[in-house]
């Protein structure tokens, strides 16, 4: 294997890029690939499983700004968020993406729900204790996204947030 780190003086380097005179320089490089191979060889390579709390998917490109607003609100609430950048009219592609990045929930930003001040959140990993379909999906008010976990009966649920959203599918 090569060295993990290396460096030296590069006084003439800037003349290659147009400097009229030599300028004293130093630099170093870090061999991340070498380090990774050493960790594997020693059996101490950490397992960094892909996982995010939410993938936010816009119904169409016109809803992308609103989707970014939802992502911001979720991040401000301390959630890890990824944005599916293609239009999600074909929800299967959004679900596949969410599964690849290890998302726990997916937030769909669509015109009908948005006009009612709601975002449809679908739990991809955790389901209700008695009825598997009960906790899969909720329409969450935009102004209460900080309490999104409460809508799924998770820790820290407030009484208001735990109540069913009017018009939300079961």
From TrEMBL:
Signal peptide: none annotated. Its EC number is 6.1.1.21. It catalyses: tRNA(His) + L-histidine + ATP = L-histidyl-tRNA(His) + AMP + diphosphate + H(+). It is an enzyme of class 6 (ligase). InterPro entries: aa-tRNA-synth_II/BPL/LPL, Anticodon-bd, Anticodon-bd_dom_sf, HisRS/HisZ. Pfam families: HGTP_anticodon (PF03129). Residues 55-147 form the Anticodon-binding domain. GO terms for biological process: histidyl-tRNA aminoacylation. Gene3D superfamilies: Anticodon-binding domain, Bira Bifunctional Protein, Domain 2. GO terms for cellular component: cytoplasm. GO terms for molecular function: histidine-tRNA ligase activity. Belongs to the class-II aminoacyl-tRNA synthetase family. This is histidine--tRNA ligase. It comes from Strombidinopsis acuminata.
């Amino acid at each position: 294997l090569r060295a993990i780190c290396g460096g030296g003086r590069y006084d003439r380097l800037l003349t290659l890029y147009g400097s009229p005179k030599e300028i004293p320089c130093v630099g170093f490089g870090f061999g991340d690939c070498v380090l990774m191979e050493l960790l594997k060889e020693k059996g101490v390579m950490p397992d960094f499983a892909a996982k995010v709390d939410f993938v936010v998917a816009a119904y169409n490109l016109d809803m992308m700004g609103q989707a970014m607003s939802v992502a911001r609100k979720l991040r401000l609430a301390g959630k890890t968020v990824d944005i599916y950048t293609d239009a999600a009219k074909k929800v299967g592609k959004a679900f596949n993406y969410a599964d690849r990045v290890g998302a726990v929930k997916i937030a769909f930003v669509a015109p009908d729900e948005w006009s009612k001040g709601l975002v449809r959140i679908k739990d991809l990993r955790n389901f209700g204790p008695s009825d598997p379909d009960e906790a899969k999906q909720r329409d969450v008010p935009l102004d209460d996204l900080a309490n999104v976990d409460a809508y799924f009966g998770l820790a820290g649920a407030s009484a208001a947030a735990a109540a069913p959203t009017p018009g939300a599918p079961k």
